[in-house]
Design goal:
Length: 42
């Protein structure tokens, strides 16, 4: 089993003179996320 998580915002505040999408800053930086997983025997 492997789980891969990425902190990649798809929402930007555009026009902030950065090199990111739409020259903006990510709106979701430093947000908390929760992931619940369960394993079941087959």
């Amino acid at each position: 089993m492997s789980i891969t998580l990425a902190n990649a915002s798809t929402r930007f505040d555009c026009g902030r003179h950065t090199n990111l999408s739409c020259h903006g800053k990510p709106k979701d930086n430093d947000s908390s996320y929760a992931v619940n997983v369960s394993a079941f025997k087959r």
